[in-house]
Amino acid sequence: MKPLLQLDNLSVVFGQDKHQVYAVNQVSLHIKQGETLGLVGESGSGKSSLGRAILRLIDLRSGRIEFNGTDLAELNARQMRPLRRQMQMIFQDPSLNPRQRAGQMLAEVLNVHGLHTGVARAKRIAELLIRVGLRADHASRFPHEFSGGQKQRLGIARALAVEPRFIVADEPLSALDVSIQAQIVNLLIGLKNDLDLTLLFISHDLDVVEYLCDRVAVMYLGRIMEIAPTATLFTNPAHPYTQALLAAAPIPDPKQIAPQSKLYGELPSPLNLPSGCVFRTRCPRAQASCALQVPPLQNVSHGDQHSVACLFPNIP
Ligand SMILES: Nc1ncnc2c1ncn2[C@@H]1O[C@H](COP(=O)(O)OP(=O)(O)OP(=O)(O)O)[C@@H](O)[C@H]1O
Ligand SMILES: [Mg+2]
Known about the structure:
With 316 residues, the protein is α/β, with parallel strands linked by helices.
């Protein structure tokens, strides 16, 4: 099937001159219609920046974002507006206005996009609340009257209100209790199947990624190191960085009290990246040649679905 989203050499840079950080560095990947792509990697690897760049919420330095045949990188704000409806984001914290009732919040979203009026709008709001596992009468409640999980359901309802085709979910579970996380994961799976949604799912939780995603991309210091179907990535990781991440589960996250890691050495400063392969300073398999060129993301073994950016990948 033709990809819904195709990124080509996408770069996002923060800061100027000597203080430049390549948060996203020459990223190329695609996501097929109806697919869920997981995006994992240590804190600071550029996952959120990539998600935000795709939705044109932050500026691009260079590259193409082809969404359903249109290059978003070429569009100005006005031209982007009709596409905004098709692409939504779900965040760790849904940031609900404390003074706005749930129903008002959804009505406002529908209003902005000129969707439904009068009775049809009220019906749509009830439908959205029920679709995310809330009740129609929850429309009259204020955010403080909802639990953490219910707030996240509302955040999801807000994203769904405009009938998007593509959703970036940026660590939507991180703020929730483990028991609630499972409910939200199952909600996402149901929505994905029923609404034929395409998802970019950013997470530190490898178990959830393995459960939810069709393919997984591994990011490190702005670059995609490996991308593969989920089962392949978890059983036959080819990149030394992926292997270290899987051995170190959960992924080192500063928000965790005691990260366990098989990744030795310090994360290099994003202001002063190693030459060649950015992982070579922490890589157990690094050779002199790894300093000389950035390894291209290339297909390995059978099929064209498994790609790795390493000169010495582990190929079974
Ligand atoms: N607004 C910004 N201004 C300057 N630098 C930024 C900004 N946002 C991100 N960065 C830098 O870009 C790099 C990538 O950050 P990003 O937040 O995308 O990583 P991440 O993978 O989402 O991390 P986390 O897992 O902690 O959410 C980091 O070096 C970060 O410090
Ligand atoms: Mg992030």
